[in-house]
Amino acid sequence: MGKFYTSVHLKEDLCMGCINCIKRCPTQAIRVRNGKAVIKKEYCIDCGECIRICPHHAKEATYDPPEIIKSFEYTVALPAPSLYGQFNNLEDTDIILTALKKIGFDDVYEVSGAAELVSDLSRQYVAEHKEKWPIISSACPTVVRLIQVRFPELIEHLLPIHAPAELAAMLARKKAAEETGLPPDRIGIIFISPCPAKVTAVKSPIGADKSNIDAVLAMKEIYPLLLPMMKESIDNTEELSISGRIGISWGSAGGEAGGLLIDNYLAADGIENVIRVLEDLEDRKFEQLEFIELNACSAGCVGGVLTVENPYVAKVRLKRLRKYMPVAGSHLENRDMDEARWSDEVRYEPVFKLGVNMNDSIRKLSQVEELKQKFPGLDCGSCGAPSCKALAEDIVRGVAKEEDCIHILRDYIHKLSDELSRIDIKKS
Fold first, then answer.
1. Mean pLDDT of the 348-362 span
2. pTM of the model
3. How many CA atoms, within 13 angstroms, populate the side-chain half-sphere of residue 406?
């Protein structure tokens, strides 16, 4: 089992021990212990739902500060296409790209440009691997992690091509090294991210041993820095854009699948809908489909917790922005692009297994079922676990006890009180 990194962490001083997060977490990765939430790293898929739901702002994502730009001799910004949906009345992406250079970056490389190359590669892969249909998009790190821990049979259906941000980082470093003559390690490739899952994908890469991205900035922190610079850029705009409609469309749900230019696909967004699709896919309900695009955030990447705009407003803005764009600005042409394919295998991570082997697991599952019969089945969360079943599993794992259930505790106290009363009566 691999080493787990999560970009979501708890600010204990703000945590009030409420159960909002444990009820919302799709993988039951959170417990409340001693009045504070505890995130089980091996269960966490960095979807950011706990950040979104916490009324006390006690959960936050880990990312780099804007000052990281000064740590490199030459820096290249990688803006995610969802960044363009954060600004009102934007008619030209070059305004944002120019503004990025004005806030301190030496160059920019659009992730949407790399997305168009990924679309071309994906189109080829889908056509050449009918035996793996339906092929599942690997662009959302949360979805890939979810499949790793909960749906091992679906791993072989994952598209073995790097996400656009990773490919953009490879191409941007190569371009910068050629233009500046600097060694690659003195060039900083910095991704501007809409979600914490992308941070995790850099620290713990998918399909590779090491990421080509050196740092990750939160979109919400770059946004206020860009606003004044965008006003200056309107009259002095550089031509920096390398993408068209296909690349920009990746910023919202359905954009990736639309870029494949096929009709036989499914696109779902929102973590609950994603899980439902994966469960149906595991039951072989979608074998007739060619491709499945899944986004953990509602409306796609524009719905990430590190963005600033309402996701559905941002989605409409992207649609309006791409209206008069060319179909694509980047093309594979005759490039081989071997570096765009996974070099490492994505493996099953059995974090939810109860036992060390089949017999042990069966025995412990039986114990879980016996314990569940003792509990009221209310899934109230008062015990600090999201459900009665989760509490039973925690007890079997040795990290909780029956008396954590308030109903069991109440019965125990009543029983103890009755025994003490009988003792008092006997003494008198």
1. 92
2. 0.92
3. 9
